[in-house]
Design goal:
By secondary structure, this protein is α+β, with helices and mostly antiparallel strands. The protein is built from 4 helices and 8 strands, in the order αββαββαβαβββ. It is about 30% helix and about 40% strand.
Length: about 220
């Protein structure tokens, strides 16, 4: 019987050892780097009206081509111009309470790497037939260096916050076990809305603000 009991004990699985985990602290930090933008995007659109859909589309194509040609002549042949949206549909007349012809709209974004040309882009587009200047947006051609700097600042702040929390609990900060980041480029939008024909007056003044590159870091560390 004793031999059988020993044999049974040897065949039983070993009880798992409970590993006691140290208390942890979680904290986050934010890093912000303000830099001078080196790129500006101008949003505009060309809208045309006609009795039929084909006429509205043909007229819009002609007017949009004229606006694009004027922009390239004023800003340089290598200026980046792209279509961001197009719509063609019936136009509703609220006075007649019925559809009255068709409307075509071509939305365009112009990217300029010389900030001093932002005002010229607006005036040229308005003078060439753009019906709406939707606004401009300052940004960066390459945000990676500023993003890396913002991440370093966010990490330092997250660690400092974790140390402060641990100290408040009468502990010291141990090994950082997890660090997670998220970042974004915050641009400086300027809402400028005008209609065709305003480009014939005084040049539109445009002053670029700074671009804020923000990074967020969350850390988890042991306390001891």
């Amino acid at each position: 019987m004793r031999t059988l009991l020993i044999a049974l004990l040897l065949t039983l699985p070993a009880m798992p050892q409970v590993v006691q985990r140290r208390p942890v602290v979680r904290a986050s930090g934010e890093g912000i780097v303000s830099v001078r933008p080196d790129q500006v995007k101008v949003r505009l659109s060309v809208t045309t009206n006609a009795n039929t859909a084909a006429e509205a589309a043909d007229l819009n194509a002609s007017e949009t081509t004229k606006v694009m040609a004027a922009l390239r002549q004023a800003l340089g042949a290598n200026t980046e111009i792209r279509t961001t949206g197009y719509s063609l549909g019936q136009r509703y007349n609220p006075d007649l309470r019925r559809n009255d012809g068709f409307t075509a709209t071509n939305s365009i974004e112009v990217t300029v790497n010389d900030l001093s040309l932002a005002g010229r882009a607006i005036d040229t587009a308005a003078g060439a037939g753009a019906t709406t200047i939707g606004g401009i947006q300052f940004t960066l051609k390459d945000s990676a260096p500023s993003r890396a700097q913002a991440l370093r600042l966010a990490t330092m702040q997250a660690k400092a916050n974790a140390e402060a929390i641990a100290s408040g609990l009468g502990k010291t900060l141990g090994t950082v076990m997890v660090a997670q980041e998220g970042s974004s480029v915050s641009v400086t939008p300027i809402d400028i809305r005008t209609t065709a024909g305003l480009g014939a007056g005084a040049p539109t003044p445009v002053e670029a603000g700074n671009v804020d590159v923000r990074a967020y870091v969350a850390v988890e560390a042991e306390m001891q």
